Amino acid sequence: MGSRYRDLFEAELDTHNIVWCRGDRWRVPAVDGEERRQPGAEWIDAPCPSHRSRGGRHAASGGAWATQWPSGHASIHLGREVATRYGLQIALHEVAHVVLGHIVRRPRRERVFEREAAAEAWSFQRMDDLGVPIPEASRRRAAEYVAYRKRRGDRVIARQAANKKR
User: Fold this and answer.
1) What is the tens place of the pLDDT at every residue in 81-106?
2) H-only helix segments in 16-135
3) Which of 145, 7, 29, 132 minimizes the C-alpha distance to 82?
């Protein structure tokens, strides 16, 4: 039996037709396209095919990302359980990357920190829409993460500019 937060997350996965990979097993959405409804989501025991996984597994303590699944579905790779508001916010942040089109390869018009800020804002808005109070710790972590991504991007740009001058 899942928690309320996990149920909300799984409903979002079904709404947006997203696969959830836990590392050693993955969840195929209950909705197959727009026409046919499956009776429920299906869990498949198999290692993660992502090159970012460690031996087909994900650490329960961290590392979450959204990407394209080999079948063409969007996928979220998240080893942790979604049992708290904090966990829900992290999971919805990854859903946001899918919904906002961040997993589609195309020329980048936004810097990474801008995409991360948009995903954080989407996840907070979605939690608000669902009636889930947003923990202050989640807001702080989000602000720190976006600031970190901006600083990191600024360093990369400065390094690239210095290399061009040589």
Assistant:
1) 899 999 999 999 999 999 998 888 76
2) 85-99, 112-129
3) 7
Structure confidence by residue, pLDDT tens digits, 101-129: 888 876 667 888 999 999 999 999 999 99
The model carries a pTM of 0.84
User: Which residues fall within 8 angstroms of residue 35, CB to CB, at 6 or more apart?
Assistant: none
CA atoms within a 13 Å half-sphere pointing along the CA-CB vector of 88: 25
- Of 27, 29, 47, nearest to 39 (Cα)? 29
Q: Strands 31-32 and 36-37: what pairing?
A: antiparallel
Strand partners, 57: 54
CB-facing half-sphere around the CA of 58: CA atoms within 13 A = 25
Q: How far is 40 from 13, CA to CA, in rounded Å?
A: 12
By the 10 Å C-beta count (0-12 exposed, 13-18 middle, 19+ buried), 62 is classed as exposed
- Whole-angstrom CA distances from 160 to 59, 98, 166 are 33, 29, 10
Tokens representing 151 are 């600083």
